[in-house]
Specification:
This is Sulfotransferase. The protein has 462 residues and is an alpha/beta fold. It is built from 17 helices and 9 strands. Helix 1 packs across helix 2, helix 2 runs parallel beside helix 5 and helix 11 runs parallel beside helix 16. The structure holds 2-acetamido-2-deoxy-beta-D-glucopyranose (NAG) (6 copies).
Length: 462
């Protein structure tokens, strides 16, 4: 018979070994952490060297902002990987802090009603995104933010090529991620002047976000002070970011509209984050219509276009044409990636054309809600009905109240044909993908009975 081992002795041995191992592991862990921190610091400081905080005038007209679009040209893969790993650690720490701070974990399993969804409305300027954003803003269980990334663009200056463009995309993405996790404090770093005690009067387009203008986030209005983006229907005190954060955690879902996310591929870490259940809706519009609309909204920027088209003056500067091309291409590349349905995106990406929404807003809204896995409410339906069949003529540039089925083709009669041709030349691949037909002459462009829209059943499959 084998001897029964001396149990207490053995146990002590095991314990001792374990303790040594633990010490060793602890030591190793410590070294690893030091190395990581060191590496991270280097990379982050490398990045932050390039992000200069600018002094910003307060009253810049917001419409201007996206015209300084930063887009990727030659982001080297090396720097992307480096930056990405540094930021993902940084992000995890932030996320932990957020969770501790918020007290309530925004994990899907904690939500008893329906799974918490995170909807990104990804668009570019003048594509009707304010209007489509309302579809989500009007749902009372959704915490909706209107262009929060505006603050980042305003305070951080990026050179628009190479590693800096990559850096900007990563900063946008990581701030966006924190916002989806309801960490609104992160935005305070970018608000100017900086909030005091988490109070600010400078939250961009606060009034466009119902959640920031209802109880309890709307605190009593006591002192008459200037608030540029104040709530529309009632007077509120300055925005308390902590209160807003609590409101966000208390809503069932979060939705953000953003015109500053240029590349879908950068959103992969959001999509793969187990704390998020992302649904990305990419909104596109005929680039000829977008140009026509921009020429009205940002008139100053398009002087040379108008002069060339209407007065035969000097040609449009090549860099502006290249910028238009860059915009079309980044939209197209994002859509191609989304439509390819890579594993990480499956069921989480939807492409939608503004023109289809304009023609059947309610139906498209229902499709978007179905895609998001959220029930559309009667309030949302009523808002859509009320705001798409309005008979009054509203010319407000930011107005979302339009007779939408009539409006969406107006551009055909306002854009000079020469400009339509420029757009067609540089945006052809994107137009082909989205089903926007080219007009080869002025007669085609302005003949109402010729449709420039190919009928497409849903682009996306679930
Ligand atoms: C756009 O910004 C420039 C300064 O950058 C300003 O002069 C111009 O008035 C702004 N345009 C609009 C439409 O606000
Ligand atoms: C970008 O890449 C192209 C070729 O891929 C090269 O010709 C160009 O010089 C690069 N630009 C920058 C800013 O590195
Ligand atoms: C975050 O918190 C979890 C659990 O509290 C911990 O396991 C994890 O290591 C933390 N992550 C970071 C990056 O601090
Ligand atoms: C902001 O809201 C938080 C959370 O309700 C509250 O504790 C804090 O006192 C408020 N801050 C101010 C300055 O009112
Ligand atoms: C909206 O425009 C369409 C197309 O011109 C027209 O048929 C319809 O009557 C208009 N609806 C309202 C409510 O004005
Ligand atoms: C508009 O197009 C239709 C269909 O191609 C054609 O029958 C009609 O003559 C055109 N109208 C004008 C004014 O060119």
């Amino acid at each position: 018979m084998d001897k029964i081992p001396n149990l207490p002795m053995d146990f002590r041995d095991i314990l001792r070994t374990l303790r040594m191992k633990a010490k060793y592991a602890l030591f190793l862990g410590f070294v690893v952490v030091l190395v990581i921190i060191e590496k991270e610091n280097k990379i982050i400081s490398k990045v932050s060297d390039k992000l200069n905080l600018k002094q910003i005038p307060q009253n810049i007209f917001e419409a201007n902002s996206t015209e300084n679009d930063v887009y990727l040209e030659n982001g080297s893969l090396m720097s992307l990987n480096e930056l990405d790993s540094a930021f993902s650690q940084f992000r995890n720490k932030l996320a932990n802090v957020t969770l501790q701070y918020g007290g309530k974990q925004p994990f899907p399993e904690d939500i008893t009603k329906s799974p918490r969804r995170h909807i990104l409305l990804m668009a570019t300027t003048r594509t009707g995104s304010s209007f489509v954003g309302e579809f989500f803003n009007q749902q009372e269980n959704i915490f909706y933010l209107f262009e929060p990334l505006w603050h980042i663009e305003r305070t951080v200056s990026f050179e628009s090529v190479g590693a800096n463009a990559v850096g900007s995309a990563i900063v946008y993405r990581d701030v966006l991620k924190q916002l989806f996790l309801c960490d609104l404090h992160i935005l305070e770093n970018f608000i100017s002047p900086p909030p005091e005690n988490h109070l600010t009067r400078f939250m961009f387009r606060r009034g466009s976000s119902k959640s920031l203008c209802e109880d309890p986030v709307c605190t009593p209005f006591v002192k008459k002070v200037f608030e540029r983006y104040h709530c529309k229907n009632r007077r509120c005190g300055p925005l308390n970011m902590t209160l807003a954060m609590e409101a966000c955690l208390n809503k069932e879902h979060v939705a953000v509209k953003a015109v500053r996310i240029r590349q879908l591929e950068y959103l992969r870490t959001l999509v793969e984050d187990p704390r998020l259940d992302m649904r990305i809706i990419q909104l596109v519009r005929d680039p000829r219509a977008v140009l026509a609309s921009r020429m009205v909204a940002f008139s100053g920027k398009y002087e040379s276009w108008k002069k060339w088209a209407l007065e035969g003056a000097a040609p449009i500067p090549d860099e502006e044409v290249q910028k238009l091309k860059g915009n079309c291409e980044s939209i197209r590349m994002s859509a191609e990636l989304g439509l390819k349905q890579p594993d990480w995106l499956r069921g989480r990406y939807m492409l939608i054309r503004y023109e289809d929404i304009a023609r059947s807003p309610l139906q498209k809204a229902k499709e978007m809600y179905k895609f998001a896995g959220i029930s559309i409410t009667p309030q949302v339906e009523q808002w859509i009905i009320k705001n798409t069949q309005a008979s009054q003529d509203s010319n407000g540039i930011y107005s979302t109240q339009k007779n939408s089925s009539e409006q969406f083709e107006k551009w055909r009669f306002s854009i000079p044909f020469k400009l339509a041709q420029v757009v067609q030349d540089v945006c052809k691949p994107a137009m082909k993908l989205f089903g926007y037909k080219l007009a080869n002459d002025l007669e085609t462009l302005t003949n109402r009975s010729i449709s420039l829209l190919e009928e497409r059943v849903n682009f996306w499959v679930t």
